Each structure stands twice: as structure tokens, then as C-alpha cells.
Recover the amino acids of this structure.
């Protein structure tokens, strides 16, 4: 069994980046790229490239891109026995538009196929899940599936990537069942119901999550780094100056580093530093996953 199992989406990423200032309601000259994506898949690929032992539970359509995504993970050493191909369905797709600062301006996500990941679907892969040292979930999953996973894996350390503000609220009722979470500020607000406009309010939100039962909280702050909190420690990790090529996928590599840190028993500050290093490596690549990311590269920056 793999040390880490990720339950989440696999999709096809289409990303557009303008050459100049992004103009709405107009055609913008720029560059368009096509790649494999999905929060769960990106986390899985990063774990594999960093040297972690990982499996994935997901679904793809009966199309060339979906099969290619599964094959790439397998070639990286990922256990893909839990990735099922659905006849007559298309793989999920994610369309994003970056602005002139290489930050996401807007996106459209077609993830309906992920709804096939139901409690019954998880039961088919229960042995794989129960044999893991940590299990990651993303909120592309339905509320029912998230709650079921939290119930059957109550003795397994669980990690949550909230994905977006809209989707994060699906996990609000069970947030205390997660060993570790990694929201951004807006997702932390949605999950906690608290407003975060200052460092004091940020610390209060971190404390709220700990009171609910979460053991490790990482609230990402975009260009300002990350705030981390555990029952007995808290602090900030600030990023070094870099010139990002694309911010897409930086959070996914951070999540991958967190999961590896969890199964290796690292303390929360070490995990935060490794996560920041992983995110910086990712931002230096135009893709959602930097193919050059590795354990050695992260250790060098750490």
C-alpha cells in the first residue's frame, strides 16, 4: 500500500496568458497551453516527483487526454489502480485565464465526472485507503463523499485542500475531522465564518480551526507567504523574491509537501518551509507542475 492516497479530480487544463494587460470583453493576444491538471492529480504528481510513495483514487473519461493523464502518473510510479475509466464520458476540463501578473483572473471548471466518486465508489477502494498513512481529499468531491470518507477513515490522518471558496463550504461541518488543512484567506473565511482583514484576525481564525480539532493549519497568503498554526506553535514563512512565470499550481505543490511532511513526522514549521520552497519551484514554470521539482531541489532551497 502507498504511504499517501489522494482522492480527487483529474482533468485537462487549458490556460491562457496575455502578452500585455488583460482586457475584458476583448480578444487578447497571448499564449495558450494544454496540460494535465486537477487539484488531486497535481498534488499526486508533485508527491511522486518529490519522492513520496503515493496512490490516487479518481475517474477519467474514455478519451485520449484522460488515458494520457493516467499513464503519465503510472510512469512516475504512482499506484493508479484506483483511477477508473468511465465508458462514454469525457474527462473533466479546467479553463483558466491569467492576467498580466501571471495570477489567475478567472476560470471555468467542468468537473461533473467527479460526481461519480461516491461512497459506493470509495468502498471499492477501501483496502487501498485504509492501508495509507495519510489520505488527501479535495472539495471537488461531493459533500456526501467527503463526509463518508471522513467517517470510514476516522483513524487515518486526513488532509483537506479546499480548492475554492464555493467548494470549501462543503467541508465546513466536518472540518474538525481533518488532521491538516490548507486554505487560502478567502477559503479560511468561508470555512470558519470569520472575517480576516488583519494579522490579529488571521491568528483568531487559526485558533478557531485548532479549537474544532484540526492539528495543523496552513493559511496561504499569496505573495505574502503562509501562516501556520498547531495547538502549540504558530508563525509566518515569508517568500524570497522571485519572478513568477505562473502562479497556477503553486498551492498544489505546497499541499504535496505538506502530505510528505505529515507521513515523515516533520514539525509544522519544517513543513511550512518545505511547502514554500515547493511552491516557489512551481511558480518558475509555465505549467501547473514544474517537471524539475524534486526532493533535491526543495532541500537546496530549504
Amino acid at each position: 500500500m502507498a504511504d499517501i492516497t489522494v482522492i480527487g479530480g483529474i482533468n485537462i487544463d487549458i490556460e491562457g496568458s496575455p502578452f500585455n494587460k488583460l482586457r475584458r470583453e476583448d480578444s487578447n493576444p497571448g499564449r495558450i497551453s494544454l496540460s494535465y491538471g486537477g487539484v488531486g492529480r497535481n498534488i499526486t504528481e508533485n508527491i511522486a516527483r518529490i519522492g513520496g510513495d503515493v496512490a490516487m483514487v479518481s475517474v477519467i473519461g474514455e478519451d485520449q487526454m484522460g488515458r494520457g493523464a493516467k499513464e503519465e502518473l503510472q510512469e512516475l510510479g504512482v499506484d493508479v489502480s484506483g483511477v477508473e475509466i468511465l465508458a462514454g464520458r469525457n474527462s473533466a476540463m479546467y479553463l483558466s485565464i491569467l492576467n498580466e501578473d501571471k495570477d489567475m483572473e478567472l476560470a471555468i471548471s467542468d468537473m461533473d465526472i467527479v460526481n461519480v466518486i461516491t461512497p459506493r465508489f470509495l468502498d471499492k477502494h477501501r483496502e487501498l485507503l485504509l492501508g495509507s498513512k495519510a489520505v488527501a481529499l479535495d472539495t471537488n468531491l461531493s459533500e456526501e463523499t467527503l463526509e463518508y470518507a471522513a467517517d470510514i477513515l476516522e483513524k487515518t490522518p486526513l488532509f483537506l485542500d479546499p480548492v475554492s471558496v464555493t467548494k470549501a463550504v462543503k467541508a465546513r461541518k466536518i472540518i474538525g475531522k481533518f488532521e491538516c488543512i490548507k486554505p487560502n484567506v478567502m477559503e479560511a473565511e468561508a470555512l470558519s465564518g470569520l472575517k480576516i482583514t488583519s494579522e490579529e484576525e488571521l491568528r483568531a481564525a487559526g485558533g478557531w480551526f485548532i479549537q474544532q480539532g484540526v492539528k495543523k493549519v496552513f493559511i496561504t497568503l499569496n505573495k505574502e507567504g503562509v501562516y501556520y498554526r498547531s495547538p502549540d506553535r504558530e508563525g509566518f514563512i515569508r517568500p524570497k523574491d522571485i519572478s513568477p512565470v505562473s502562479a497556477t499550481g503553486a498551492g498544489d505543490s505546497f499541499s504535496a509537501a505538506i502530505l510528505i511532511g505529515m507521513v515523515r513526522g516533520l514539525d509544522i514549521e519544517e513543513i511550512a518551509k518545505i511547502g514554500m520552497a515547493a511552491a516557489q519551484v512551481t511558480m518558475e514554470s509555465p505549467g501547473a507542475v514544474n517537471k524539475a521539482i524534486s526532493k533535491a531541489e526543495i532541500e537546496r532551497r530549504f
The chain has a mean pLDDT of 94. The first helix runs from residue 39 to 50. The CA atoms of residues 28 and 130 lie 48 Å apart. The radius of gyration is 18 Å.
